[in-house]
């Protein structure tokens, strides 16, 4: 090939890009060599057409150019292939324009403005200082010159040689007539490639827009967007339903053209709070307003509250099916006394957190009611609530109930194993009632579960992560149990992160009339009246068995009273009521011991009343026939305990055992 040219550029990148450009256009007709000043130059180029990539290079490489050379300094223009990157920047963004010299920077800005890239504010970078606020820089392939602090860099690629220089090259080789047409179509095909790329991008954006529209239309809420000049740009089908307006009518309109409700308009344009409740036509909606990050648009969401309530109901129904539901809410906790109101107020605050709560209060004060209400007031209200009475089950059974077991882990284990209460309550709340009654062994296990938030089933070898809020309750003095070595101090502190003390009914006697009224209703006798003097007696009473005792008393009164007015005459005798002493004594008894007491006492009473000697063997025989069979040792121990409590008298010889008045009262209670 006779035609030859040498390209001299600054950086290796510029050399490579321009060499490739010249090669793509002239490759078959002109042989091309190229050098970069930053790498190495030949000693001397004797005779050739020299193309300098810029004036700067013309000066820097002047010493290698022989006298018989002809030279052209290339005019350069933006690389159209990468120009689309500038469209990714938002209108009016101020950008730092960076090139290798201040002159080249000015030239780049000039070209960009001439080709119509006017949506940006270009600030030339002079290599020394630049405004600190500018965070975006654009450069034609000169990334190393960009100051370090700049966050976003848009490289539009090395500038290419422009068409006039290309024509000059053709001229030099006298190829213009022969190749002018081919060359200019090759050059313009590059620009067509760019248009193709932009139209593909357009199509992609359109598809994305359609997908987004489908998503917005498919959402269960009304969605509306407003652009920077206050015109509606999005109006989905739910908005159409709530407002009765069509999307085609709404789009392009301003808010006052669509809504007449003054308070709604005010909220939509300048909300004082996060969300607000409105009735639009017949729809009850909660409206939320969000400023759209990264744009000046505003997003408005209209949530149908009736729908939300229906959905909550459906979710609760599902939970009810599983039986893991908290039945009580704060409004079910009857009473307006100051002590109760304060307790409810604290409990509502505790509900907001997910930390463990220890509830302390005498028996029958409503600890379970409060635990249930706390769950229902918390963020987990749609998740399970499981309650377990720790004193009602023997240790092994309680352990397997709480933690579950793997198949075959003990004799009698169900096939397939069993999920424990902790696992079933995952995501929700577990209520551990009578926590003071659990054995030290179970306390250790419970402590680990609460600390690690994972459980291991009995006979299992893997840990299962769980997320459960623990609410524990006790009527015992746990600190005394700690002193006596019966309760772990570390577990106590883990459970008592938050604390709620439920006042006894003695401390809120003002609540008695309302509670009485409530229990009349619950017993199906809303029209029954309590005589004023009986009400005074009930109000004066100390209620050591608290609300449970009051509830039982009302059931008794309704049963024995005649007519619809209940008077003092209908009151049971003193033995019916729980005494302070018996409360103190019984508080020491575990639920299991109480059950044993009741079981054995009932057998003794029955034997006494049928004049059969209540010997240990007779009691044992009757016990074996019951649903709660006790071993001979258990019966011996229970009779001894009953004697200690003075509930029975054990006669020597063949006299057998006899129930005392105190035993009868205990049994009645
Ligand atoms: N404020 C109240 N309003 C209405 N009913 C109540 C109230 N407080 C308690 N009750 C009722 O009294 C009974 C005892 O309540 P609960 O079982 O919650 O007490 P507790 O403190 O957990 O008792 P225990 O320590 O014996 O387990 C329940 O039937 C409950 O519905």
TrEMBL record:
Signal peptide: none
Cited SUPFAM superfamilies: P-loop containing nucleoside triphosphate hydrolases, PYP-like sensor domain (PAS domain)
Key words, A-Z: ATP-binding, Nucleotide-binding
Domain PAS: 208-255
Sigma-54 factor interaction domain segment(s): 333-559
Pfam families, per database record: AAA_lid_14, PAS, Sigma54_activat
Keyword Nucleus: no
InterPro entries assigned: AAA+_ATPase, AAA_lid_NorR, P-loop_NTPase, PAS, PAS-like_dom_sf, PAS_fold, Sigma_54_int, Sigma_54_int_dom_ATP-bd_1
Highest taxon of source: Bacteria
The name this protein goes by in its record: Sigma-54 interaction domain-containing protein
Organism: Halobacillus campisalis
